[in-house]
Design brief:
The structure holds 2 protein chains of 2 kinds.
Chain A: H1 3-34, E1 38-40, E2 43-45, H2 51-58, H3 60-93, H4 96-107, H5 114-125, H6 130-137, H7 152-177, H8 180-188, H9 193-222, H10 225-230, H11 238-246, H12 252-277
Antiparallel strand pairs in A: 1-2
Helix pairs in contact in A: 1-12, 3-4, 3-7, 3-9, 5-7, 7-9, 8-9, 9-12, 11-12
Chain B: H1 6-35, E1 37-39, E2 42-44, H2 51-57, H3 60-91, H4 98-110, H5 113-126, H6 133-158, H7 161-169, H8 174-203, H9 206-211, H10 218-226, H11 233-256, H12 261-265
Helix pairs in contact in B: 1-11, 2-11, 3-6, 3-8, 3-10, 4-6, 6-8, 7-8, 8-11
Classes of the chains: A mainly alpha, B mainly alpha.
Chain lengths: 284, 266
């Protein structure tokens, strides 16, 4: 090798390691370190303590919000799958160009500005919003209801609307991967459509469902903008509590500890998704 | 799939249609509102107007935020494409340390943005870097790096090894092979990755809110305005951004789906 090439290769090596280490790993390690610090009269005390974690587990307020947020995000994942599965299944019954055109159509809303979608959904769900107008117009409601604005329902509905596309894609891919020969064999052996679905299609698509659930859950629990925008006073989620530690409460170490709890849930959800998303092979 | 009974097909089609309506309703509301007057959920269909677009062109706050967004986007694209390509070239065909560093690169993408943003916020404070556009650009680059890296790496892996070997057989040096063979083969993946990186940077809100100084990008500006309830010209902006993002994605798809898959495999 020539010296210029060797020097270039050394430079590339340094760059390759420096960038991720300096700007990703180091900040996260410092952040983790902060969770063991404490605050005294507005200044951060750099002495290690487990106090933040003890407070998180023992203070009923924080743990209750934490738990409620997990339940909320599991509900979002469940609703997304209930809507996405039939849609993804329908797509796989289509032939050729239509299948992918419709898939694109259902994925395009992902690209739209997140903040703008949250705002638009809020205006749909609001007291004078389109949803209330429609429900009153159809005679389902007597007068506009506050059921869908500034509470947990609003967060649930908004997150569901935002995250459905993330559920459609993995389920569609899993369904598409099921070998046609299995379905034809099942048909030849005299199974009804329902039997084929329950015994072949559904079990083979479960890894896709697991990935979809894990995606949606992780994105929902990590979201802060939606609860902040549509949650109001009664829609309080873990993300908002966490953020408040960095703003009004000014307790960065405690906020860091709450973030570690959030990260632990996210990592667990990703691992569960990976585990079940790959457990069954679909190859023949 | 085998043929379904008609009833279940209708049922499935109905749910798919419902999902499409749910997904598109938040996109249509601002667009309709940008051309018609909407008050208390009622649309006045009788008087289409482009007044909102005119007042948008005079909104200096928004135009300044748009400029900031573009500056951040362009810098992020340059930084992430250069470093993402270097990383992909470096890790391609190398085993040691690859999985660990690849995991680190993907961390900001896997972690909730609020965690990445807060970690960077504390980091910048610890090293004494003032919050500014520079910190925003670093935050965005770290966030989109995984996408560019992955795009380029996938193209590298699908690239035929024989091209590089032929180049060496014909007497080319390492640099010549890189400039004449590897880079031209990667260029469309780099362009596609760049477009995706720009689109992600254009929409990134959470990290930006946390690490920005006095200048805000478009989503952050919108975020601040929405919390107070905002003026109708924002609807016009929303309609324009929608068209812009769709255009970006069509472009990205064009560059990322290889046109000569067959010839590359031979």
């Amino acid at each position: 090798m020539q010296t210029s090439e060797r020097r270039a290769s050394l430079l590339v090596t340094v760059l390759a390691f420096a960038m991720p280490v300096v700007f990703v790993l180091v900040p996260l390690v410092i952040f983790l370190g902060y969770s063991f610090f404490s605050v005294d009269q507005g200044t951060i005390v750099h002495t290690p303590t487990l106090g933040n974690y003890v407070r998180f587990f023992t203070d009923p307020v924080f743990f209750k919000v934490f738990w409620n947020t997990i339940v909320l995000c599991l509900s979002v994942a469940a609703i997304c799958i209930l809507l996405a599965y039939p849609a993804a299944y329908f797509l796989t019954t289509l032939k050729g160009r239509w299948r992918y055109a419709l898939l694109m159509l259902l994925l395009v809303p992902l690209l739209m500005s997140y903040v703008i979608k949250i705002y638009a959904i809020r205006s749909i769900l609001g007291l004078n919003g389109f949803l209330n107008k429609a429900l009153v117009g159809l005679g389902i409601l007597e007068q506009p209801s506050t059921l869908f604005v500034f509470n947990m329902n609003a967060i649930l509905l908004t997150l569901t609307l935002l995250l459905i596309p993330f559920a459609i894609l993995p389920i569609f891919l899993a369904l598409e991967r099921i070998p046609q020969v299995l379905l034809r064999a099942s048909d030849d052996l005299g199974a009804t459509g329902l039997q084929t679905f329950l015994r072949i299609t559904l079990p083979l698509s479960l890894p896709g469902v697991a990935s979809a659930a894990s995606f949606v859950f992780v994105l929902a629990i990590g979201d802060f903008l939606t609860p902040q925008m549509v949650g109001g006073i009664s829609g309080f989620t873990f993300g908002r509590i966490l953020y408040s530690q960095f703003g009004t409460a000014y307790n960065w170490p405690f906020g860091a500890a709450l973030s570690v709890a959030l990260a632990a849930v996210v990592i667990a959800a990703i691992l569960v998704g990976e585990r079940f998303g790959r457990s069954r092979g679909t190859s023949v | 799939m085998t043929a379904l009974p008609r009833l279940s097909t209708i049922f499935l089609a109905a749910i798919t249609a419902l999902v499409a309506v749910l997904l598109y309703s938040p996109l249509f509301v601002p667009i309709v509102s940008s051309f018609f007057t909407v008050s208390h959920g009622d649309v006045d269909w009788s008087s289409p107007t482009v007044a909102t677009y005119v007042s948008l062109a005079e909104n200096h706050d928004i135009l300044a935020a748009l400029r900031t967004t573009l500056i951040v986007g362009v810098c992020t694209v340059i930084l992430s494409v250069v470093s993402g390509t270097l990383l992909a070239l470096y890790y391609h065909g190398r085993r040691s340390g690859r999985s660990v560093l690849q995991f680190i690169i993907f961390l900001p993408f896997l972690m909730p943005p609020i965690i990445s943003g807060l970690a960077l916020l504390i980091f910048f404070r610890e090293i004494g870097l003032e919050r500014s556009l520079l910190t925003v650009i670093i935050g965005h680059t770290v966030f989109v790096l995984a996408i560019v890296y992955r795009t380029v790496l996938m193209r590298l892996q699908s690239m035929s090894r024989t091209l590089v070997e032929a180049s060496y057989d014909l007497g080319a040096t390492g640099w010549q092979t890189f400039w004449r063979i590897i880079l031209p083969n990667l260029s469309s993946a780099m362009v596609g990755g760049a477009i995706l990186a720009f689109a992600l940077s254009f929409d990134e809100t959470m990290i930006t809110i946390l690490v920005t100084g006095t200048q805000s990008t478009l989503p952050v500006r919108l975020w601040a305005m929405m919390r107070l309830g905002f003026s109708p010209d924002i609807n016009a902006l929303v309609a324009l951004i929608l068209m812009f993002t769709v255009l970006l994605c069509v472009l990205a798809a064009r560059f990322l789906i290889p046109r000569q898959v067959a010839t590359q495999r031979n």
